[in-house]
Amino acid sequence: MKKEEVFSLFKIEDLNELPNAVMRIIEGDIRERNIIYHELMRMNGYDMSYDWFQELYENELSERKQKKQDFTPNTLGVLCSKLTGQLGSIHEPTAGNGSMIIADWWQRCRKFLPYEHFPSQHIVTCWELSSRSIPILLLNLSIRGIMGYVYHGDVLENIVKQKYILLNAHDDTLGFSDIIKANINDKIVCNNEIERSI
């Protein structure tokens, strides 16, 4: 995906504007979000196996000095997924843009036909400290129909700035997940609904 395509799609003039532009899209009108999601898929040849933003983000927006951010190559994510070969939930304490989660998700999806893979059986819990990474992480997970919890905060200090729930209401691997700003004790319950805390 070329930088110019990203600028045009998200109506930005500088890559530093990307996180805010993505957040506006994912928090805005669902129809507009879905149009952009479909266009992103088309621009990337419908290849969902890797983080489309990684190269752009790595070169331009990373916070290596301030937050010691580094990026996991896709091949390492695939290798880790193959080594663990696990089923069930995933916990990623330093998610970044989600490249490790995407690699594992792709390896899991490849084992099933689309109608045999259910996002609710592969719940993700992840943390990310960087405010610039959170919007792209949320987009990367929701465009793939992944279900789970995203904590914007410090996993080491257990400080949460914001919790998000990714809910794939139809439990459809080929569908998108809704992104819901949640209270700390809100959780996904049976029938893919959210149980809200008071």
Give an overview of the whole structure.
It contains eight helices and seven strands, in the order ααααααβαβαβββββ. It has 198 residues and is an alpha/beta fold. The chain has one domain. It starts with a helix and ends with a strand. 33% of the residues are buried.
Tell me the strand order in the biggest sheet: 1-2-3-4-5
Instruction: Determine the N-to-C terminus distance.
Output: 43 Å
Query: Quick check: average pLDDT?
Result: 88
Helix content: 25-40%
Largest sheet: 5 strands, mixed
**Quaternary assembly:** single chain
Q: Supply the number of structural domains.
A: 1
Structural class, judged by helices and strands? alpha/beta
Helix-strand sequence:
HHHHHHEHEHEEEEE
**Helix count, DSSP H or I runs of 4 or more residues:** 8
- What proportion of the residues form beta strands (DSSP E)? 15-25%
Per DSSP E runs of 2 or more residues, the count of β-strands stands at 7
Query: What are the low-pLDDT stretches, counting only 5+ consecutive residues below 50?
Result: none
> Radius of gyration, rounded?
16 Å
Shape annotation: globular
In brief, what are we looking at here?
The protein is α/β, with parallel strands linked by helices and 198 residues long.
